[in-house]
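User: Could you go from structure to sequence for me? I need the amino acid at each position, not a summary. Structure tokens:
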């Protein structure tokens, strides 16, 4: 298959990972999706991934041209419609006023909605998101002028046909199978899909997946932080889950067990519980924080976020940016920072997570033994009961989270791995940034 950018109308890019989950993507494409799109009259281009990293590289290299072709094709179909109507409404066909509906025109900058359907799992979605953002912004939003700005800010609407193993994003929206996902795409309803910016300060960062290690060397000089330790540099964006400790070790070991199919996570978690470790780290939450209160069963705002005047509000915000609102000293048995409530059907580690809000949900379990973590994870499999039941489970919502490990550590970032140096040099920051040039993604629901 493969995709060739053309100037034809292509309202949909279809990215298929034939290797996802039980390798059923191709069958879903030919038997269900293509007939439905043909019936609905939706033209599409197919991009078939051939290896790990393919989708990310594809979008990094081609996203600019894709937008050019897309806008041109909308303009062309807009002028064709206006010609059919005798051009009575003065449509020029230059692309100005282009909206999602090719025929419609409005005042102001063009609203462009690029639709991408992913037939695969969360790893493929992660690659698409990172490829699009790297193609738009280069290595970081501060690395130079970007073609996405106040004058051109497209939406990227993702429809996820869940053929992967976990399918966390789809499952968290209650999408249980490919047909359900297809119906939702055709219904044309979407919500914002916020991504988490993962940043490091040091000049050399090692971002690893099981097949490749990418080392990024930042060019110094562009400071976007007042810290004496230098600017925060985005390393990767995540939409699913960031973790440390048992969950990260489980995902890492499960990669080596792909031959076992979908039971590889179960095998890996049992192994990591049998040889349970505690993972030393300090985690700091900055800015406003909400904590789950087990007695009232509510998320309660941290007292320090209450303000009385706009002036105090500003002062307090500055203080909150510098001083952590909450510090978790570790060591951690289990730590998860996520935008999704569920990681697979029935497993709901972070029940209050919302893909569209600007909070990062944090599940922290510090220094518990084998029996306790088994009970906690068992209750997480009962639609998130662990949060209500276990006093060793701490649940927060925060805007900014930083983690530092006293020895070399490993983080899982949407199924890929970030090896971090010991101490302040390796510190990692997670933030649901409000930059509208980053938060371009929407999700069909
Ligand atoms: N043709 C291919 N051959 C091998 N690996 C591929 C191919 N295309 C993509 N990949 C890689 O396969 C990995 C897993 O894909 P994906 O996440 O879609 O499925 P999954 O792991 O089964 O599902 P989930 O992430 O939801 O648990 C991704 O990291 C992706 O880069």
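Assistant: Here is the amino acid at each position, in order:
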């Amino acid at each position: 298959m493969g995709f060739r950018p053309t100037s034809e109308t292509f309202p949909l890019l279809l990215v298929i990972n034939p290797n996802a989950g039980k390798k059923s993507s191709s069958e879903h494409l030919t038997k269900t999706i293509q007939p439905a799109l043909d019936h609905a009259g939706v033209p599409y281009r197919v991009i078939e991934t051939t290896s790990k990293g393919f989708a990310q590289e594809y979008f990094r290299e081609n996203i600019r041209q894709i937008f050019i072709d897309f806008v041109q094709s909308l303009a062309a179909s807009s002028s064709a419609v206006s010609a059919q109507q005798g051009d009575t409404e003065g449509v020029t066909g230059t692309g100005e006023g282009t909206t999602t509906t090719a025929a419609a025109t409005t005042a102001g900058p063009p609203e462009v909605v690029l639709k991408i359907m992913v037939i695969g799992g969360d790893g493929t979605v992660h690659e698409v998101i990172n490829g699009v953002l790297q193609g738009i912004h280069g290595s970081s939003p501060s690395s130079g002028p970007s073609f996405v700005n106040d004058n051109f800010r497209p939406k990227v609407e993702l429809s996820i046909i869940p053929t992967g193993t976990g399918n966390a994003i789809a499952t968290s929206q209650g999408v249980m199978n490919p047909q359900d996902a297809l119906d939702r795409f055709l219904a044309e309803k979407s919500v914002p899909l916020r991504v988490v910016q993962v940043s490091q300060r040091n000049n050399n960062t090692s971002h690893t997946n099981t097949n490749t290690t990418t080392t990024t060397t930042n060019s110094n000089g562009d400071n976007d932080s007042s810290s004496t330790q230098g600017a925060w540099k985005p390393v990767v964006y995540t939409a699913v889950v960031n973790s440390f400790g048992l969950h990260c070790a489980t995902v890492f070991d499960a990669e080596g067990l792909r031959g076992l199919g979908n039971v590889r996570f179960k095998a890996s978690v049992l192994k990591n519980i049998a040889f349970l470790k505690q993972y030393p780290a300090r985690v700091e939450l900055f800015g406003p924080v909400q904590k789950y209160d087990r007695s009232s069963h509510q998320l309660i705002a941290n007292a320090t976020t209450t303000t009385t005047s706009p002036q105090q509000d500003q002062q307090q915000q500055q203080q909150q940016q510098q001083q952590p609102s909450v510090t978790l000293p570790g060591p951690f048995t289990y730590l998860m920072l996520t935008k999704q409530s569920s990681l697979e059907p029935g497993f709901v580690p972070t029940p209050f997570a919302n893909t569209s809000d600007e909070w990062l949900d944090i599940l922290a379990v510090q220094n518990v033994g084998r029996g306790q973590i088994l009970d906690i994870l068992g209750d997480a499999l009962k639609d998130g009961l662990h949060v209500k039941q276990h006093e060793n489970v701490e649940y927060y919502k925060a805007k900014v989270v930083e983690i530092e490990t006293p020895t070399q550590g490993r983080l899982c970032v949407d199924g890929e791995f970030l090896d971090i140096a010991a101490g302040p040099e390796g510190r990692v920051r997670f933030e649901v940034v409000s930059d509208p040039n980053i938060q371009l993604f929407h999700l069909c629901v």
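One structural detail worth keeping in mind: The chain has two domains: 12-188, 197-433.
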